[in-house]
Input
Amino acid sequence: MKNARLFLLLIIALAMMALVACGGGTTTTEEAVATEAPAEEAPAEEVEAPAEEVSGKVGIVLPTRDEPRWVQDETRFREALEAAGYEVEILFSQGDSARERSNVEDLITQGVQVLIITPHDGTAAAAAAEAARDAGVSVISYDRLIRDTDAVDYYVTFDSIAVGAQQAQFLVDNAEGEGNPLYLYAGAATDNNAFIFFEGAWGVLQPKIADGTFRIVNSSEAVALQDTAELTREQMAGIIDQVTTNWDFNTARNLAEANLTSAPAEDKGDVFILAPNDGTARAIADVFATDTDVTSFLVTGQDAEQASVQYIIDGRQSMTVFKDVRTLVDDAIAAATALLVGEAPNATGSYNNGVVDVPAIQSPVVTVDQSNVVEALIDSGYYSADLFTGLDALGSGETEAPAAELSGKVGIVLPTRDEPRWV
Output
């Protein structure tokens, strides 16, 4: 009996051990939940990286508020730079080199990092450029070249040689016969561009002066050099001193009046006038139009100023060289923003300023007269048609000429109807 009890106790003990062993491998419901593989999470919505913030300050010094061209440039510079997120400060020198230097110093004090400057006097502006360079400011010479210094980083310009060449070519293309009276006018002797424009014009005009197509009326210096194909800067300076308008309307008008007062009738008639820009062209044209001995005149210009576009439509100015300042402003802004982020602007040439070859970013120019004024200036969006009168008489530039009406009768003889080919 005793052995039977011991056997029963042994059986019970073994059974309990078996239960414990089985329970050790069992997990509770909570444990099962905790150890299940986590459900795959939905991908997080992609968040665009914030646009890279731009920062920097650009200072701009323009030569005068008295010419529409520079007021237009001011507006375009301000709108484009502010839209791009940059600070901009624009000052005018009003034809005063001392004020120009003061403007540059003021901008340096304001913390500009890039200076865009159109010098009143290219040589006098060297000191202002050097002050900017010494302050760690990058210098872009805009439209006019700063001379006699190595402190200019880039030059943004139109193809200035082409400007003068296109003005002169217009006169050449419209000249017939020999001995046509030619009146020469130039920009300011303090402006390097005046020399470049004149150089481009002289290169086209000189052969036609030498062969007798044109006869220079109002510059003894030019007459003395009429057989010289390439002029030195000193030789050009001698001519420009006699025919400078100083880019000033009143100076141009007074000079034209003096030239016509002293000119005999044989120096008038059908005349040809090299005027350096639109403002001076209008002033000169108004004077020639009142001289009863002037039968007709052709007068050049440049800048496509609104007033001169109307003159061209009306037949009071013959042509202008269109320099799309939208392109030039864009080029200057691109150069400035590249410098602000430590990159090199894309130069396409260079101009020697008397000390160094300054890398240049050049824009093309277009001759505009009555034949293409609508296409070049209205259809391109540069001006709105409602700014002008008389455009209808020139045509819209968009209407195709009607196809010519055709008439006639053709006879055809074929060999037979009995072969499918001929039917």
